[in-house]
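Sharing a chain and its predicted structure for anyone who wants a worked example. Both blocks are below, sequence first, tokens second.
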Amino acid sequence: MNSPQTPPESGSQPARRSIFAALRSVGGDLKNPLWIYLKGFLFLVSGLLAGGLLLLEHPTWKDAALLAMTVWCCCRFYYFAFYVIEHYVDGEYKFAGLGSFLTYLVTRR
């Protein structure tokens, strides 16, 4: 049996590979609807928490309006990047994230 001070034996390679395979699969595409909904609601909760904390620190109508305008404009840009371009400008473009959208903008003819 290995203690924390002894190096792992060569027989532990399959276990190490399975750990790395498991870690790689964590970053893959979500396919389970439950996890997809959970991720979406975590974004919502995080955004509400961040916005609430900003407004607690700066409780003015001006800051509330600027925060609301920032959120709305960012949402509209995201909609533009993934839906408008794909459905109204270039039907061959398939959105795969904002990185792919930036690549599309730089490399298009």
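Comments welcome. The chain has four helices and no strands.
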